[in-house]
Specification:
The protein has helices at 9-15, 24-29, 38-44, 87-99, 120-132, 159-174, 181-188, 283-297, 308-328, 376-387, 409-418, 429-432, 454-467, 531-545, 552-574, and strands at 49-53, 72-78, 84-85, 105-107, 113-118, 149-150, 219-222, 236-243, 246-254, 273-278, 348-351, 357-361, 367-368, 370-371, 374-375, 391-393, 399-404, 435-436, 477-480, 494-500, 504-509, 520-527. It is of the alpha+beta class. The longest helix is centred in the C-terminal third of the chain and has 23 residues, at 552-574. The protein starts with 8 loop residues before the first helix and ends with a helix. The mean pLDDT is 95. Bound molecules: iron/sulfur cluster (SF4). Iron/sulfur cluster binds at residues 437-439, 443, 445-446, 450, 480-482, 484-486.
Length: 575
């Protein structure tokens, strides 16, 4: 069953890394060396940080005409199961972005935080600061289980959300790596002394072994009526089965994943498929079994096809299930008939069921910053310092403030207004359900803009939708600067994926906001300035020919590429 081949360079690196140590500690302690080299760059990801360089500054020259070289900096990602963050932890992250980063914090599409622009000299202190707040960067990236996602709504009058969120914690805790390298490199050495690798003693990695997983591994838990986590895009998903207001079990979904390499036909985006049904007490053990099957049978010679989705595509669900049963120790039943039916971005004011309220605040592309009249960072800081409430990070890169007494709502609204932070009735549905990855200037893999381009595209799209009286439609746009798909661009109504230099994109249509369908490629190598002219006739078609209650994504799926193209051609000829 295993695809045996020559191990990839990364696999050899992991084996020889002394459980992910490499020479990270030595380079970190060397004042003469300004950045990490290839092997350590790869290993650093397992510690929650990516070495990057400011791509806006690439190619710039000194006064004498010589190249300035790369401006190295680091992204530091925090792993936060279910996006649960205390006020103190949130404030610590805001402090760290000012002390060591570029003055912004980014909420990720997997309910984590990212600091950007951290210099090497500040990297250890930034990671220590996160750990001092009782959060961690360990396993936020790398070839392990990454952040376990879960619906963040702080509903208190039903056990369903509380049980789900506790399950996310349990899975994350069970599947976290056990290597002590993280502690030794980043936390232990208060004097900044070089760690002594000769003292290295391997610790048992009961789940991951010496080489960890073949590739990153993502898990999410969802409710059928609220797939805010985009459960089908994960390697492993749990879809809750609720009876009498209790979770009685979960359908297990396997093999979702977004990344593709357009030049490699063997790669594809995939939605997770139903595997089995488990009771809550079986969840952690079955998760471990799935991870171990991927560990032992995933492709370790070609990282392009190393995600779980390729193993499942190669061997099929029955053979994969048989292996999971073998690792789990007993047979597993068929999944229950269960479908995702809805999604909620949790933006706005809601009673949370215990006499208090929660407030979801939309953060455009997750970027917490102060710019001119829009002072999100200071506004959130003011509220958190004054009220000290718990918060939740959402999968649509936004934030929920929890546990708000009714009498404090007016004051919180006032603080938001004073800082220019828009409330639910001031933001279009289009914008609420749209997200972008960072791309330029920090991501080394970005081909095009994403975060910096999406707001302008949405401005223009809002105008077009208003023209056809479609402003009240829920339409999701997910944009990424390359096909790796970090902002899940293959499932929404509209996906925009960076394709080629010169701001050219692949336009995907026919997915949906509830995340149950992959879109199809409607246009490739589409210049940014042609995105709105390409969509405008399709909005007109949707307005004219939609069925009652049909969403834009469903309409595009029903018409298909050819139907949409035919209408668009006629529309453009007539206008
Ligand atoms: Fe970078 Fe591509 Fe991920 Fe965007 S999708 S953050 S460009 S790797």
């Amino acid at each position: 069953m295993s695809e045996v081949g020559k191990p990839s360079q990364i696999e050899i690196l992991k084996i020889n890394s002394q459980q992910l140590r490499g020479t990270i500690g030595q380079i970190l302690n060397s004042a003469e060396v300004g950045h990490f080299e290839h092997d350590d760059v790869a290993l650093l990801k397992n510690h929650g940080t990516y070495q990057q360089d400011d791509r806006d500054e690439r190619g710039q020259k000194n006064a004498d005409g010589t190249s300035k070289g790369k401006s190295y900096e680091f992204m530091v990602r925090t792993r936060i199961p279910g996006g649960k963050v205390t006020a103190a932890q949130f404030l610590a992250e805001l402090d760290l972005c000012d002390q060591y980063g570029n003055g912004t914090v980014r909420i990720t599409s997997r309910q984590g935080f990212q600091l950007h622009g951290v210099l090497k000299d500040n990297l250890r202190e930034a990671i220590r600061g996160i750990n001092r707040s009782m959060l961690t960067t360990l396993a936020a990236c790398g070839d392990v289980e990454r952040n376990v996602m879960c619906c963040p709504a702080p509903i208190k009058n039903s056990p369903v959300h509380i049980e789900m969120q506790a399950m996310a914690d349990a899975i994350a805790e069970h599947l976290k790596p056990r290597t002590t390298a993280y502690y030794e490199i980043w936390l232990k050495d208060e004097n900044g002394e070089e760690q002594n690798v000769a003292e290295f003693k391997p610790v048992d990695e009961p789940i991951y072994g010496a080489t960890y997983l073949p590739r990153k591994f993502k898990t999410a838990i969802s409710l059928p009526e609220d797939n805010c986590v985009d459960v089908y895009t994960n390697d492993l998903g749990f879809l809750a089965v609720v009876e009498n207001d209790r979770i009685v079990g979960y359908n297990v979904l396997v093999g979702g994943g977004m990344g593709v390499t357009p030049s490699a036909k063997k790669t594809f985006p995939a939605l997770a498929k139903p595997l089995t049904y488990v009771t809550p007490d079986q969840v952690v053990s079955v998760a471990e079994a799935v991870v171990k099957v991927q560990r032992d049978f995933g492709n370790r010679s070609d990282r392009k096809v190393a995600r779980l989705k390729y193993l499942i595509a190669n061997i099929g669900i029955p053979a994969f299930k048989a292996k999971v049963e073998e690792y789990f120790g007993k047979s597993l039943p068929e999944p229950k008939p269960l479908e995702v039916t809805g999604v909620d971005d949790h933006i706005g004011w809601f009673e949370q069921g215990d006499g208090k309220w929660f407030l979801g605040i939309n953060i455009e592309n997750g970027r917490i910053k102060d710019v001119d009249g829009l002072r999100i960072k200071t506004g959130l800081r003011t509220i958190l310092e004054k009220y000290g409430m718990d918060t939740r990070l959402t999968p649509l890169q936004s934030v929920i403030l929890c546990d708000i007494a009714p009498e404090n709502r007016a004051d919180i609204n006032k603080i938001l207004r004073e800082h220019g932070i828009k409330q639910v009735d001031e933001i279009s549905l289009l914008r609420r359900y749209s997200i972008a990855c960072p791309a330029w200037p920090t991501c080394g893999l970005s081909i095009t803009e994403s975060e910096r381009a999406l707001p302008g595209i949405l401005d223009d799209m809002e105008v077009e939708l208003a023209k056809y009286a479609l402003s009240t439609e829920v339409i999701s746009v997910h944009m990424t600067g390359c096909p790796n798909g970090c902002a899940r661009p293959y499932t929404p109504d509209i996906g925009l994926v960076g394709r080629a230099a010169g701001e050219q994109y692949t336009l995907y249509l026919g997915g949906n906001t509830i995340g149950t369908r992959l879109g199809f490629i409607y246009a490739d190598y589409l210049p940014k300035e042609n995105i709105i002219p390409t969509l405008s006739p399709l909005f007109a078609y949707f307005k004219a020919e939609r069925k009652t209650g049909e969403t834009f994504g469903d309409f595009c799926h029903r018409q298909g590429k050819e139907g949409l193209e035919a209408y668009s051609l006629a529309f453009n000829n007539a206008t």
